[in-house]
Amino acid sequence: MGLVGTVVDAAIGWMVQTILGSFFSLQMQDWTHQAGLAEDVAKLESEMKSVQIIVVAAEGRKIGNMPLSDSLHELKELLYDAEDVIDELDYYRLQHHTQGKGSHAAASTNPEGSCASSSYSPDLYQRVRSSTNKIISWATTDRKRKRDDEEPTQSLMLPLDIKHDISDRISRIVDRLSIVGKSVQGALQLEILGHNNMVSNQWQSMARSSRLTTSIPIERKVYGRDVQRDSIVELLMKGKTNHLGVLPLVGIGGVGKTTLARLVYDDERIKDHFDLRMWVCVSDNFNEQRLTREMLDLVCKGGHENITSFDALHQKLSEEIRGKRFLLVLDDMWEDRNRSRWDVLLAPLKHNEATGCMILATTRMSSVARMIGTMSWVEVKGLDETEFWSLFKSWAFLGSENQEVVPALQSIGKQIAKELKGVPLAARSVGALLNKSVSFEHWRNVQSKWKSLVKQDDGILAILKLSYEFLPIHLQHCFSYCSVFPKDYKFTEKKLVCAWISQNFVKRECHTETLEETGKEYFHNLVDRGFFEEFESHYVIHDLMHDLAQEVSSNECGTLDIFHLKKISPSIRHLSIITSDYDEELCNFLSEKLESEVKNMGSRQKLRTLMFFGRSSTMLLRSLHTLCKESKMLRLLKIYVTAADMSSTFSLLNPHHLRYLEFIVVPKKNISGFLDNTKICIPQALTQFYHLQVLDARSYARANLVVPPPTGMNNLINLRHIISRDKVDSKIASVGNLTSLQELTFKVQVDGNFNIRQLASLNEVITLGISQLENVKTKEEAKSARLIDKEHLKVLSLSWTDNIMSPKHSEEKTRDDVLEGLEPHQNLKHLQMSRYSGCTSPSWLASKVTSLQVLHLENCREWRIVQSLEMLPVLRKLKLIRMWNLMEVSIPSFLEELVLQNMPKLEKCVGTYGLDLTSHLSVLTVKDCPQLSEFTLFHSNYFHDKQKSCFPSLKQLTIGRCHHIIAWKTLPLEEMRALKKLELIDVPVIEELSVPSLEKLVLMQMSSLQSCDWISAAPPQQSSTSQEDLEFSGGFGGCTSLVSLVITGCPDLVSSLVTETNDNLVLPTSLQHLTISPLPDNLQSYFHKGLACLKNLKSLQLHHPQFGVLEGLQHLTSLGRLNILMNPELSCEWDLKLQEQGQGGVSLTEEQERALQLVTSLRRITFEGCLNLVSLPANLRSLDSLELLQIRRCPSILMLPEMGLPPSLECLALDGCSEELYGGDRVSDADLAALSALQSGFNKCEVNNMRLQVFRNVSWEGTLQHLLIDPLLNPLRFAREDFPVEWVRVSPIRREVIFIRWESVYKVVIEDVNWKNKLKELLAILCTEVFATDGDHHVLMSLDHLDQKSYNTSTSTEFPSTVRESAASGNEWKRVDREVDHGGS
């Protein structure tokens, strides 16, 4: 349908290949033979091969009539039906093995589980030439004679009604395939062996090659490229060596690469600098001989026309350019596969005797730029809004310039221009359409239809389509499928690849590769070719590329925007429904519209993808249920549900085909207007989805999966990924049956369903975390995990849980043996070990795991030396953290990241001196190593080499509390040109800093630091910067790249900033995160007036501010976090000033209240140490984005705001406040409202100095997950087993505290210098992690330093009976030694 005038492409043939390779395997043959369907399946396979022969022969032939178009469309639909029926048959095969013989049998038959996921290397013509007669013969041999004997067995394999239904469907498909296949063959007048008039497969390539470019400008005026032109001209003129330089320009089609290249080519500076200029259009026809001839045409007047020898052409070109400095522009490069062809083309150019010769190449593909570039490529992006509007107007109003001032036309024009995202070719195409009639009616018409009107040969979509047509067929499918996602959707590589796998788009060609690895190659190919753009940690598709995807997939992919419903193709297989945050009344109306649209959608029964975008889709339950019930062929479902609707929704799903299920649980609001904190369960029905590959059980913050998961999860033998923040995989019994899993978190238990032998068969796993290894008792038991056989395993984490009630000496030898038995495969790339108590490293670490790239050792407390790391040739990252007794480490060369942290006894960190040790290093962290005195990396030569940087790649440097490794008053970092993040903590010797342009700077407790000079350098594309190019500037205003700045405890530096800058801006406008402590009075006025300039500021922390600063907040539209702190000394100083002025306290003025109210983006506010602040802002409730409110040490605040707190609030933290605020003897309505919120709305609450009666007013209903108590003033006893809290902090303990069997508690933090005296209470808590910290939340000491004998509870009489029972039952008390995240702050 709609194919007339196009050609028969490879899509249908690719579909046949995919189905044949995926399903018609030996295991399927065995199964269908046993089930009595062998003859039906063999006929279907035979008929599909016949279709394949026809389609391959017809590929590239023009479709000239509607009947042929209709037949090809029906052929494609029949192939989809064939895939569906075979996939359903495969489901019953899996069901039989799982329920009959057990899942292990099914899994062992095929490591991938499902036939559709099997490895397949497509070889089209080999499969076409293979004989089909053997299959028919095999299927029909002695069929009648065996029918009676097989029938009872077959009925057990497959119920008769299902068997007959599948047989009938296959027969109908076979009959129609035969008829339609012959119809197509007749229409094309083909013979099986070929046709003399058949269009070549190179048709598309020929069409693409027809585009030619020249150096002659065709634009009337070029807008917005002057700055980039000057930068490129400077780069091209910088070359001073004999080496040929290649500078690529990279950007999507139509963005203006060729125009920019012309602008550079015709620049007078370029004409003066180069002796020769050459312009050659390469396109996708990369022919070395043709390109050489074109260069000769430009450099000589003749004499080469009759030369046929390629070598002679090269000799002639070499003679003509010898001694001449040249610029060669190679426009529209596509070749990225064969580097040798590129080298051949460049051979005569490289042997020129002149210096500074350059090549400027334009390409759409970053893979081309990587292959040919000798310097960083220049990315060509769309024009900015102002310049683009000027360009757009020049086309739209051409000849009618007097109409530019018409407001209606301006409005329409700007709306259209905004959609074009700055692409100049789009401005030309759409602007020319508008220019045909400069009238309101015509422009309105174009506004609604412009996408369909710019498909002509020179339009933007036609230009972009060249890139699409250049893709291999499998990448075309992957890209076009992305049209089902909304515009501006943020893609993640992993999830998109899994979606492609669910649709059977990904085929691995090598058994050593996983499907995901192959899919990642697909993805990166599309990124390289410009179809995706990297955006922060995600990827996006340019709007025009998204339009292209919709254009090429319009027959198979559709999108319904519930507020803008439009007709979609009746043949679609992939559908997304987009909703916004509508209210319930409007959603009821829209639901009726959607219901009507769904009923009219004839293809809903055959949908393979159904995705909902938008939380309000939960209000469309009726339509949602209709779609789920009727969409019988779904492979992928993304859905928003409420906890109450989960079971009913999933019971409607057909389990036969579903591969990817993503459900997002949306909490509902309760009667108080707060969102319910809902606990959810994975429905039991999902254990029957045997094809399921991805279970994405994400949820909003207040929804949590209840574990353990349902019985039967181990039946999902094709499950590859479980995505959940609740570690569901660690609770699946007999997880060893899930042989396709790619990631697993496994907690070893003595129970057979969770012992380490479960890992033996998981040979596809890539990321594996094994904890509670103390439950593995012997080396043989450890070997039973068969880690050494897992060739795909790339990331391995091993951790033990120390048991303070177990004698240490009896376990040391056991743990050494166990670790030896956990030897991984030599392919392992990343190893992390934590809390290993053995004295030595395993023998296999340096000798066997030679592919190791990352080694992370944490809290291996008995290790004293880490050695033999030089035997790991590709080790790139080394992290050593909390190695309490480590004294010496030898670091290997070529490291890229080195982290040394919290090692109190470390004295030496040495390596072989030289550039190999430093040249690749990008991250260096040395923190809390007070005894470290010998550190090779901090040798003075590395920091004082004036010729060149010894750290050319260093991006992040952290030095903290290591007083013996730096002895220079001036720390010269100016040569570290790659440095982006610098953190210096308590390095008292440093007085001056010289740093390059940074993004993040943290200076803390730098008591001697007086100045910080910034260095401005040449443009980033420049390969090197000489000393005379550097510009030094004091203060921070000149550092326009700075995003995050923290200055605390640096009084001299802060004062110098004020003195030096005077009335100028102290800080750059690029800042997003700012902390200054203390904030002196002479800086207050700047902040009052100057905060408005920090438009990008997202978080602000101020110490000792005057509240007048708040008046500057109203302009900070991006501010999400505000902390106002005052230390006791400054607070007392302020108190004296207030007394002198006769004031007893302060409140926010009306202006300050109003300013704060305007910052609606605020998500977190903290008031700390404001002793004289008597009231909170009255309008807090209006901050509808506020999630966290912290009030610490503000004793003058007596009540919460009368207007109440915002419904969005998730966490309330009270610390050191008045009894009235806690409830005391007077409880206000606002306080009661807040207490109500504790039981119904919050998922986290921190209460400090709180009296017991507050808890008497609260009935716990399972909403709180985090409770923080600091300190207790009354005895407190919680004895409910269903207590909902999961995270507890008590600081410090002053009275009796008894915890009795909190099943849900997993973490406890005790903040008390005398915490050892209360350790006995901890032994009765069923928790995972125990911390002991001081008031600043730093770990005081390791629990390992305790005298364990003194805390043996076996003879204790002080514990309640329930506690003694708990201790005697063998519950394990676990702890982690690390810095504690201060909950909620």
TrEMBL record:
Similarity field: Belongs to the disease resistance NB-LRR family.
Domain Disease resistance protein winged helix: 484-549
Span of domain Disease resistance N-terminal: 16-101
Location of the region described as Disordered in the Swiss-Prot/TrEMBL record: 101-121, 1353-1385
Keyword set, alphabetical order: ATP-binding, Leucine-rich repeat, Nucleotide-binding, Plant defense, Repeat
Protein origin, superkingdom: Eukaryota
MF terms (GO), sorted A to Z: ADP binding; ATP binding
Record's compositionally biased regions (Basic and acidic residues): 1372-1385
Boundaries of every R13L1/DRL21-like LRR repeat region domain copy: 756-883
Occurrences of domain NB-ARC (ranges): 230-397
UniProt protein name: NB-ARC domain-containing protein
GO biological process terms on file: defense response
Extent of Polar residues compositional bias: 106-121, 1353-1364
